[in-house]
Structure formats: C-alpha cells, structure tokens
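Budget justification aside, the reviewers requested a transparent look at the raw inputs and outputs of the sequence design task funded under Objective 1. We therefore reproduce one unedited record. The lines immediately below are the structure tokens for a 321-residue chain.
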C-alpha cells in the first residue's frame, strides 16, 4: 500500500512520518532552516541540497574539543596522553575534514525546480538526464532516530524527498522502490516539517508564503558588516546579553567568519537549468492553462485545515481556562 501524508511508522528507536503525498498542511510555519531556497519568483521555486553550516559547526566543535584535550594533558604534564590524543584526533578529524573539503569542492548540482502553475517538478541529474514529476506524486518523508551513547540520548532526523523515475511515474510507491531522491538534515520532526512547508506553501499557497532566497546570508554586505548588522538586529530584538552569547560568542567560537567566506565563494554563481526543454518548461502559462488540484487533494486539504483550526481553538480555550 502506498503511504500517504499523515502515515507514521515507528520502531524501537526510529520514526518515519510521511508528509506527502498528498501535500496537506503540516501546521508548521514555512522556515528555510538549511537555506535550500536558491531562486524564487511567481512561476517557480529552485531548491538546492547543499548546506555547509551544519558540517562546519560539527567538525569545528569536534576539533576544538580534541585541541582542548591536548592542551589539558600538556598543562598537567601528561605528555604521552597529549601525543595519543593528537594522533587519534589527527587521523579521525583529518578523514572527516577531507570529506568536508571534497563535498565543498564538488560542483553544485542543478536545482530542483517546482513550477506552481504547471504543478510539476523538473529534475535534472548531474549526468544531464531530465524529466518532470507531477507535484502530487512527490513523496516527502521525515525520518528520525534516537542515538544512545555514554552521554545520553540524542534525536537526529532529516527530510527525504523522493521522486519516481520518468518511466515509473504511475507505479505505486513503497520504501524499497528505487527512485531519485535527496536527503537533507534540518533536524527531526518539526524542523523537517518547516523545511518541507517552504516547498508545499509555494506550490499550494503562493510565493508570498515562502521566505526569500538565502543561499548567502546578507550577501550584499561584507562579512564584518554582516556580523555587525546581525548584532544590532539581535540587540533590538533580544537585548545585549542574549545577543552577545547567541551571535557574538557563537560566531567567534565556531569561526563563523571563515564559514561565511566559504559560503559566499561557493554560492557566488547559483546553477540554473539551461537545456532548451527546461527553459521552455519554465516559462509562465496563461492563467486559464494553470493546472488544478486533484479532487482528492482538495478534500484532504479541507479536512486538514479543519483539524488545525479545531486544534488551535482547543489550545486557546485551554489556555484561557
């Protein structure tokens, strides 16, 4: 049986939530958690899958922890421990940083293009193969897992977008079926829903419901100018102390300035769809030719909106009581 939005599968330490099809509201606001929106206009939305910040913060923080361990061992005069930590961390972090650098140097893949007037998605593989998938055949899945270690439990998760191959559009979906997919890691549960809601809201509501493209944060400013702008805005919204901790110390501790430089350099040129077929497909259509929702989706959205309205009313009543 093909999974539908709202279906949930669970195991001992894992969970799998299906968000589409049919693409009904998640109840979460649209939030571009990973900066996946590369290009947006009234016709289409371009989505890219590369995010540099998550890997940078993880690897940089691990490097700082190992460096701290080496310094602590040296200060205590345990030179053998410092050497061992240095050798082990050097090999492990060298391997991880090599993978990060390799991913950074890899050319950006062509974007996924969501055409709201056609209600279709254009896929272009790095090898140049192209095809379109009906919007209501896109599968969005939010998998999550709980990892248990010596320091406790941590929940991890992401967003999986699955598309059928061009010769299998009408075949039923199951979890072992081959298809074209991208997996990103905005986080489990709500974070994945908010990232998916960026795409769903564009297609079902309109471009005004979706954040502006942000592959480069404050790209029109210099790096230092961008940092000072964020500090000023943070102080206005949250006060001095919180801003100094959340923006100031975080930026210096994780060397976000280098990350900003690398991001600007990587996204200086955003890839586009250039084949004649994709260019023709990307054009605007007269309003009378716009594709419509299926009756099944219309019904599903109406039912979901009633559920969300009832939940919001119940919440307000309980808070008032």
């Amino acid at each position: 049986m093909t999974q539908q939005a709202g279906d949930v599968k669970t195991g001992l330490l894992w969970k799998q939530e299906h968000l589409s099809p049919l693409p009904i509201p998640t109840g979460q606001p649209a939030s571009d958690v990973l900066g996946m929106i590369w290009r947006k206009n009234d016709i289409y939305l371009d989505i890219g899958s590369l995010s540099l910040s998550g890997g940078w913060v993880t690897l940089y923080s691990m490097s700082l922890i190992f460096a701290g361990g080496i310094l602590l061992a040296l200060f205590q005069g345990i030179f053998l421990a410092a050497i061992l930590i240095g050798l082990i961390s050097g090999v492990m972090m060298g391997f991880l940083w090599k993978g990060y650098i390799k991913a950074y140097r890899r050319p950006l893949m062509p974007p996924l293009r969501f055409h709201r007037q056609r209600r279709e998605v254009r896929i272009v593989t790095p090898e140049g193969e192209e095809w379109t998938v009906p919007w209501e055949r896109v599968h969005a899945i939010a998998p999550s897992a709980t990892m248990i270690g010596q320091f406790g439990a941590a929940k991890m998760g992401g967003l999986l977008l699955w598309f059928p191959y061009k010769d299998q559009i009408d075949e039923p979906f199951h979890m072992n079926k081959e298809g074209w997919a991208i997996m990103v890691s905005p986080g489990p549960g709500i974070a994945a829903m908010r990232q998916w809601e960026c795409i769903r809201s564009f297609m079902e509501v309109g471009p005004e419901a979706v954040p502006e493209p942000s592959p480069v944060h404050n790209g029109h400013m210099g790096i230092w100018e961008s940092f000072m702008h964020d500090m000023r805005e943070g102080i206005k919204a949250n006060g001095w102390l919180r801003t100094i901790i959340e923006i100031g110390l975080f930026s210096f501790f994780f060397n976000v300035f280098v990350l900003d430089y690398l991001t600007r350099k990587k996204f200086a040129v955003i890839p586009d769809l250039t084949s004649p077929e994709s260019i023709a497909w990307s054009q605007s259509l007269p309003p009378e030719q716009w594709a419509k929702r299926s009756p099944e989706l219309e019904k599903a959205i109406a039912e979901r909106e009633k559920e969300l309205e009832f939940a919001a009313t119940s919440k307000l009543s309980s808070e008032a009581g």
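The first strand starts at residue 8 and ends at 10. The mean pLDDT is 86. Computational costs for records of this kind are itemized in the attached budget.
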